[in-house]
Amino acid sequence: MKRFLALTAAVALLLSMTSCSNTEVPASEFTNVITSESTTSASAVLGTTTEVSASDTAAQTESSETEAEMVLRINDQVVQVEWEDNESVEALKELASNGTITIEMSMYGGFEQVGPIGTDLPRNDEQTTTSPGDIVLYSGDQIVVFYGSNTWAYTSLGKIQNMSEEDLTALLGASHVTLTINWD
Fold it and tell me: Domain span at residue 38?
């Protein structure tokens, strides 16, 4: 009885697969399915194979790794950041890959929040006039997030996206701001 049900299911599967395909299956292939005691996959009956090459596997791994990104939260609110492509950001990413970075920030000058990273990062300071949303490295060991503007020598880390100056002031203008950076 089991053999009859397996045979019937295999024939039904084969017929449904061939009715949706432009590929003709020779009668000899039906015989192979009918006389087989084990179930045979449709790809085996049709003579098709699926191969996964090492380069496909590497691409899939790389794709899943690139899906993870460094995330900035300000007072537990995720903010979208376009990170710079420089060695300071690479060092920050490496630091964040070891665990969440939590920075207690301090308001300074009514236009920025400043906080110690806890370690020195590589720097390439340039005289810069910042704008709201800019994220910079100051003195190699402090991160600064602007909701106003200032001119000084900084290393650019990134820019907060999709937030107005008013949104940034509301988010960063408080006396107590906690910044967290981690991988998601």
Answer: 2-46
